[in-house]
Amino acid sequence: MNSLKHYLLIMCAAMALMACDELASDISIVPTRLEFAVTVNQDVPTKAVKTAFTSGDVIYVFFNNVAIATTPKYATLTYDGTKWNGALQGGLAIEELAATGETMSAVYFPFGTVTVSKSGDTYIFRGADGQPLYTYYMNATAAYELVTAGELATLTGTLNMAIPDNYVQFFVDKSGSDYSTDGKYRLAVKDIRPAACGSYTPAGGFAINALDYSQPMWGYAYNNEGILFSGQINATAWSSASERRFIFFETGAPAKSATISKTLSSRAAIKLTNVASWSAAVTEPTAVDMGIYKNNDSSTGKTLLWATSNLGATEKYTGNWASPFTEYAQCGFLFAWGEIVPFYEEASWQMKPEMNQAKYYWYDAATNSYSKYSVTGDVLEPQDDAATAYLGSGWRLPTEAELGALLAYASQHPDQSSYQMTNNGATIYFPNAGKRSGTSNPGRGKEGYTQYWSATRGSGDFTWYNYQTAMYTDNGQCWQGMAVRPVKEVQYISNLVHYWPFNGNLNDAVPSGAINGTFLYDGQTHDATLTEDRHGNANSAYSFDGYNIISIGHAGDFGTSSFTANMWICTTATTFFNTLIRTEGSSGGNGWFIRFKDSDIEIWASGNQYISNTRIND
Asked: What is the spatial distance between Cα 281 and Cα 246, in angstroms, rounded to a whole number?
């Protein structure tokens, strides 16, 4: 009996031990901590700047086996100057990562602020302005493993980050200028297009959002050293050297341009030097007062000066209806609405030879809609206004109300080759510049189209049409190329007879004495040099050193009538003598001149009769 009990006890103990062993084999420890042991290499043959990763750089990592959720799920690797620190984003859990046999895809944006969102099974990348980041990027796809040891999981893998094919970079150093602000500079180059990493899908990888070739690339500031532009080349076009147009846009300043002959290959990096000394992209036109207020509203207190020629025209059409005009030279550039890259017949300016909806800057093919300016009444912002982009602050496209007011003074040439506008003692002409549709220019010349863009988005797009003297909407075809007639605003002053605003030149901005829009009283400088004005605006004042002078012709022939001269003057010395401005009649008759002498401003007129003096105390 005792022996039987002993046996039963042993059996029970054995059974108990077996049950404990089975329980222990079913228990697994779920990792609660994740460490990243990911190696990051940079496979970049050539770079203009940012040749290595720097502190604060972020790499976005996506896992092909992680299901797309309501919010984007991914990881980030942030560089602290010595190592990459990882973090899970969007609620991604450690247990969603696979132990082995899966891949991760990574993307790095060197400039700008990135936001990650999702649409369906696609991750979307956008900048702070909601638009794609049009700069180069680096990406990689590699296998990863998740090694667990108790509560710790370690993510391992190697990312060989590389720039995709056909990206090139252009770097503009400071060169004495303030090339240090994001979003202030753009560069358009023939046969190079802005391209951005716009999205990622586990099935398809990273996708590029690319604009049309020759559209402007946005510049990004680098380390207060300069501005970097990047885009994709048309490799076939750049395989041989030829003269190509480069246009440099700076917000608020006139555009600069140069032609450069080079060959370029994928991943090339070029430093552009002496951009500040490039030529003006276009010549600033003369402008006349047609008696039309800003927005056709006298309460604004501002009047408009209308350019006497189209933007980009190298010759001024003067209404010589008896003989044909030189078509493209007098018609100027053709732009799609809201774009700043033109078509023009001169070979180096054929930046955008084809104009259609698919190549339109603001067209979103995915949604078949416009990503900006989609609402009736929208007005172009300065960076999208061709007149502002090429001529600088102050110049712009006229609004619909302003063009409508001008049209009241229009008369059509009998052969339907142009319109003549006459009012307020001035006359300007609008030749039939036609329009660019696809790769052709229908409607140029006689019995053609007098169509000009306004700055206002209408139910279609505001233009003029040759066969009727009324406003006409063009069925929303804002992607077509049409001419631009710039205007600029000036403060309205009653009885103003002459105005020299010093907008980079000495043109008289008020048409007293004007004949067909050609001023009689534009000034001439005798060694006085352009400089900054009191507000810091470049080329908006003149500097004198004691031997310089500005001559303004016979602008002072007022007879015995009284007049007022108003100007801003800043001095750097108290013992100084310089005649600043004079008219041709200064030595007698009705001329006048203004001079600075020993801290006094003196005005002389009517046979050198001393008029008055004002003490300057800077």
From this structure: 9
Sign of CA dihedral 142, 148, 149, 155: positive
d(CA 217, CA 272): 14
Binning pLDDT at 50, 70 and 90, where does residue 232 land?
very high
Angstrom distance (rounded) from CA 235 to CA 246: 17
Rounded Cα–Cα distance for residues 23 and 40 (Å): 42
Which residue has 């080329």 as its token pair? 539
Looking at residue 17, the DSSP 8-state letter turns out to be H
Please check the confidence at residue 469 and state whether its pLDDT lies above 60. no
pLDDT digits 0-9 by tens, 277-313: 899 999 998 888 888 888 888 777 788 899 999 999 9
pLDDT exceeds 80 at position 443: no
Cα separation, 418 vs 55, in Å, equals 61
pLDDT tops 90 at residue 141: yes
SS (H, E, C) 340-370: CCCECCCHHHCCCCCECHHHCCCEECCCCEE
Q: pLDDT tens digits, residue range 360-406?
A: 998 877 778 888 888 878 889 999 999 999 999 889 999 988 988 89
Predicted confidence band of residue 12 (pLDDT cuts 50, 70, 90):
very low
Per DSSP, 2 falls in state H
Q: What share of the chain is helix, strand, coil (3-state, %, to 5)?
A: 10, 40, 50
Which element (helix H / strand E) includes 23?
A: helix 2-26
Output the six-digit token pair for 327.
Answer: 């078509």
Contact 321, 355 (CB under 8 A): no
Q: Which residues pair with 173 in a beta bridge?
A: 226
Q: Residue 538: is it exposed, middle or buried by C-beta count within 10 angstroms (0-12/13-18/19+)?
A: middle
> Which residues, other chains included, contact 270 with Cβ-Cβ below 8 Å and sequence gap of 6+?
48, 168, 169, 170, 171, 262, 264
Provide the pLDDT confidence category of residue 321 given band limits of 50, 70 and 90: very low
Structure tokens at 20: 């404990």
H helices, E strands: number in the chain: 4, 40
Write b or e for each residue in 71-84: b if 16 or more Cβ atoms lie within 10 A of its Cβ, otherwise e.
Answer: ebbbbbbebeeeeb
Whether 511 and 289 have beta carbons less than 8 Å apart is answered as: yes
Residues 6+ apart with CB under 8 A from 107: 59, 60, 125, 137, 138, 139, 197, 200, 206
Contacts of 22 (CB under 8 A, 6+ apart): none
Rounded mean pLDDT, 230-255: 91
Closest among 316, 319, 353, 324 to 336, alpha carbons compared: 353
d(CA 344, CA 351): 8
Q: How far apart are CA 384 and CA 361, in angstroms?
A: 10
Q: Are strands 541-543 and 549-551 parallel, antiparallel or unpaired?
A: unpaired
